[in-house]
């Protein structure tokens, strides 16, 4: 009874297990008290998602730039359904979103706020709770089926007015959607790749908003070329914010030539002397640093120095990545893993070497160079658990971690007060990736990760390590020059007829028999060329020609963006695909279609 009295002061209902634990009693004793009507037992539905007490809403002091942005968005919404908010990193875009969300929620309508990465929800949700309390719901792939059902019902019943989600939030059963916000709209995480349907959540969100007669805001410090062109043409409204909140200066960006440093033998493991000294200064000043490398694992592959043998996946045409903490070679395409061997499989010599670098290696080297520093890692391997993202980010926010090593998860919209140094360990990975979007993504990644530095009072520093310091993308990042980058990239895209000046359809064919997939690809290409639907490129062997024991062939179809009859274009492609499926010998060839890859 004393235990019950103690617990009852805090809560209206007392949980049975809490009462038993505090009173050091057992279930039998509690049942006898219930039978004697001393206690009344109730079954109460408790949300798996947790409840949050709504705080007093303290509207932040909006800067002149933010007030102007809100006024311009309102003006554009009079005649346009979508607005592109182009604001430099740390310009206060999130507060602009919050003001617009609050307006829509006051009208009794719902808001969908989409983020590209689950890691972002962990940090931003705490900020939004202060404004919207229990009206806010979170939805992403880490929830189990029961939790998803509960969220689904709460959205359907209108209990949740604001949904923060990754791309899958598009498919929730909204009753009266008034506003869709797509933060970091340029991010390729919004594109669903595998399995079908292959959709772009950014583009789909515009369509969803139109269904509800709602408005859409696309926000980014580095907008995608497609969105910026739509804004230039007047299809979207364009609102720009060029000042950081509190007039904090943009970070100083230094470029370090790794090729030169290696010749001089001044590299410290994977770090130039400048980056090493900068990390020392940050630690001495009790500040924090982020080191970015877009490869997980310890090293890219294992090879034999004697015969040159490279350990490859038995299911895919790709080398396996060495994961030191698991002591395994792992394929990042199919998940196949095998233990690391001491002797070469091919020639038997004990002369194996691991080549390249990943987050594990950088974490180990930093711990070796700075043994007094607390080092953390944010990548797919450290965030597999349900709350893995929030655990690492909370530790970094609470200054339990001095140096955070991470993949692209650290580049997207995170706000850390004490981070004054960002190191991009190897910019060449992004610059020379195969694909027509390589320059665009490299520029976006470097600008975004650099924007994590110096977000409060002090000017931050960004150090980019590259063997190509004169590369035009690098020089444009250093100058914070989005306009020049946009104009030059658009000229190249127009010259070679790439999006946004064309529409593209990417067809991939798969089969376990290489002759069969080759035959199917040639059959489909020949029929597509007869239809004259556009420029047909292929069939080609992709850089990774075999995945999960399936051989791959690719066909690319390009058509002019101003094609008057896209329906006929799509129907012609579908007819050719149906002909392939109707062929008795070729119907076993698997086929996937990706529009606007």
- CATH fold title of the largest domain: Rossmann fold
What spatial form do the alpha-carbon principal axes imply? globular
> Residue ranges: pLDDT <50 for 5 or more in a row?
48-59
**CATH structural architecture of the largest domain:** 3-Layer(aba) Sandwich
Radius of gyration: 27 Å
| Number of contiguous helices | 19
Give the CATH H-level superfamily of the largest domain: P-loop containing nucleotide triphosphate hydrolases
Find the count of extended strands (DSSP E, 2+ residues): 23
Distance between the termini: 66 Å
Give the strand content: 15-25%
On the 0 to 100 scale, the average pLDDT is 88
Major sheet details: 7 strands, parallel
What does this protein look like?
The structure is a single chain. The chain has 597 residues and is of the alpha/beta class. It has five domains: 2-35, no CATH class; 64-246, P-loop containing nucleotide triphosphate hydrolases (Rossmann fold), CATH 3.40.50.300; 249-298 and 357-491, P-loop containing nucleotide triphosphate hydrolases (Rossmann fold, 3-Layer(aba) Sandwich); 300-355, no CATH class; 502-595, 2-Layer Sandwich (Alpha-Beta Plaits). Helix content is 35%, strand content 20%. The protein has 19 helices and 23 strands. A seven-stranded parallel β-sheet has the order 3-4-2-5-6-1-7, sandwiched between helices. A six-stranded parallel β-sheet has the order 8-18-17-9-16-15, sandwiched between helices. Strands 19, 20, 21, 22 and 23 form a five-stranded antiparallel β-sheet that branches. Helix 15 runs parallel beside helix 16 and helix 18 packs antiparallel against helix 19 (566-582). The model is unreliable at 48-59 (pLDDT under 50).
